[in-house]
Amino acid sequence: MKEKNELSEIDAKILKLSVLSVPGPLLVGFALLGKYGEPDEIPFEFLNDSTLTSAMLTIGAVILFGTFFFIIKLGVAKAKAQMAQERNRRDP
After folding, report:
1. Any idea of the CA torsion for 42, 46, 50, 51, to the nearest 10 degrees?
2. Residue 55 to residue 65: CA distance in whole angstroms
3. Which of 19, 37, 57, 65 is 20 to 30 Å apart from 1, CA to CA?
4. d(Cα 90, Cα 75) in Å, to the nearest integer?
């Protein structure tokens, strides 16, 4: 029972991190569009500012990599909890 609670807590944390990571790819995508897109294809005027797009790229990358490492850490914890649950199921 303890393992099921632990697994559900880990799943909830992974879901929260997934939601919090959404701005990362958006910032990176818009920053790359502003930096390397054709001037007539850029949908927003503020994306023509190279300082702003560099900041957006940096912040987006930090969000992406930060949530990536936390999700990997939680994935390892989830795998360990699942292995413990299987072990307890086999050895009553």
Report:
1. -160
2. 15
3. 19
4. 23
What interhelical angle do 23-36 and 50-90 show, nearest 10? Answer: 150
What's the pLDDT tens digit per position in 25-66?
Answer: 999 999 999 999 888 888 888 898 999 999 999 999 999 999
Q: Fill in the DSSP letter of residue 22.
A: T
Instruction: Work out how many domains the chain is built from and give that number.
Output: 1
pTM above 0.90? no
- Location of structure tokens 């992406």: 64
